[in-house]
Design a protein that fits this description.
The protein is α/β, with parallel strands linked by helices. Helix content is 35%, strand content 15%. It folds into two domains: 8-47 and 309-408, Aspartate Aminotransferase, domain 1 (Alpha-Beta Complex); 53-307, 3-Layer(aba) Sandwich (Aspartate Aminotransferase, domain 2). It has eleven helices and 15 strands. It binds D-malate.
Length: 409
């Protein structure tokens, strides 16, 4: 008999989103006529921007010619895409990030999980509570945690509560933590970080020799240009942070798949002999062994996001979803719910008005309004009593969902 990676058995039975789908399927089996509106998983609904489609079509035609054919691409991604990203997303905002420090990938979920390949299990790890479940589950799978407690916390992880009392902004840990996951704009609470908050984290990380894994997948939803869009807008972050970005939500790429990570060359870790090693070198080594890159066609599509036409189109997409978020916020506020997020993020974090648990709240809305949300407790203990509603849907569905919910309260 072969042995398995028993760390997987420490996991809760199902990943959050499939668990929700199963509940919805069970409900639909009993109510096949129910007109379900899904504001659960954050999956975009609007079509791909025309600029991206044209670029991908042209790339397909190129691939049909001898001169324009592309086989394996560079593991790190094509230089023209990395240069465009480095300039547009970083240098133009004053961040000293070069195209060499960018690695194109097929998703931030993969990047932030795969990053554990190059980090030792001896690191102490902090996550917020609630948190995007991938950070926790991938550490469990990698054997970086102990078992789950009856309270739902994994041994070996430090949980930093983010609640209405602290405006969903974690306090710095009292003790030294090696690896800290931060996500801004935040999934699931929709909270946003100010520059001074990120400065506190960068100073903490520099003081303790920690690494910040900064998930900025929702950066494009920030409505205020003065708020930091990247951790690298903070002095010193290049010595202590890695950033994850994605085109999934920004440009409707959830099904097309393209993202990138920024790994500054200055970041180092210590090996078992106590010598400094560049994280960039390890990641390059990992990617060139385990990853063959994103297709040429998709990278051309991603490049088109940065064209004038692409920028205009993604602004429209984002405005559309943010208007949905504003509708959710306003409508639920009218009936007396406590609502958070939704101003710089496509997620609205809703407190149950009558003290139900998250899963009861979820079931109630599913059964009575045929609206699917995501139970806050699925993101962590401190999310209990909340529901996350996603703004990714059509206007008519969002309005109908809000009419159904508000008429219940
Ligand atoms: C979410 O709903 O939290 C996201 O869609 C999950 C993801 O991007 O992987």
């Amino acid at each position: 008999m072969i042995s398995i990676n028993s760390n997987y058995q420490k996991l809760k039975a199902n990943y959050l989103f499939p668990a929700i789908n199963e509940r919805v399927r069970n409900f639909v089996d009993t109510q096949p006529k129910a007109d379900i509106i899904r504001l659960g998983i954050g999956d975009v609904t609007k079509p791909l921007p025309a600029a991206c489609r044209s670029a991908m079509k042209a790339a397909i035609d190129e691939m049909g010619t001898v001169e324009g054919f592309h086989g394996y691409g560079p593991e790190q991604g094509y230089g023209w895409l990395r240069e465009t990203i480095a300039y547009h997303d970083f240098q133009s905002r004053g961040c000293d990030i070069s195209s060499d420090e960018i690695f194109i990938s097929d998703g931030s979920k993969c990047d932030c999980s795969n990053m554990l390949d190059i980090l030792s299990k001896n690191n102490s790890i902090a996550v917020t509570d609630p948190v995007y479940p991938v950070y926790v589950d991938s550490n469990v799978m990698a054997g970086h945690t102990g078992d789950i407690s009856s309270e739902g916390y994994y041994e070996g992880l430090t949980y930093l509560p983010i609640t209405a009392d602290n405006n969903f902004i974690a306090s710095l840990p009292k003790k030294k933590i090696d690896i800290i996951y931060l996500c801004f704009p935040n999934n699931p609470t929709g909270a946003i970080a100010t520059k001074s908050h990120l400065e506190e984290w960068v100073n903490y990380a520099l003081k303790h020799g920690s690494l910040i894994l900064f998930d900025a997948a929702y950066e494009a939803f920030i409505q205020n240009p003065d708020l930091p869009h990247s951790i690298f807008e903070i002095n010193g972050a290049q010595q202590c942070a890695i950033e994850f970005r994605s085109f999934s939500k920004t440009a409707g790429f959830t099904g097309t798949r393209c993202a990138f990570s920024v790994i500054p060359k200055d970041i180092t870790g210590i090996n078992h002999e106590g010598n400094k090693v560049k994280i960039w070198d390890l990641w390059m080594r990992r990617q060139s062994t385990k990853f063959n890159g994103v297709s040429y066609i998709v990278q051309r599509g991603a490049e088109a996001i940065y064209s004038a036409e692409g920028q205009k189109e993604i602004k429209q997409l984002i405005n559309f979803y943010m208007t949905n978020a504003a509708i959710i916020y306003k409508e639920l506020e009218k009936v007396g719910f406590n609502i958070y997020g939704g101003q710089h993020a496509p997620y609205v974090w809703v407190k149950n008005p009558v003290g139900q648990t998250s899963w009861d709240f979820f079931d109630h809305l599913l059964k009575q309004a045929n609206v699917v949300g995501t139970p806050g407790s699925g993101f962590g203990k401190a999310g209990e009593g909340y529901l996350r509603l996603s703004a990714f849907n059509s206007r008519i569905n969002v309005e109908t969902a809000m009419n159904r919910i508000t008429s219940m309260y």
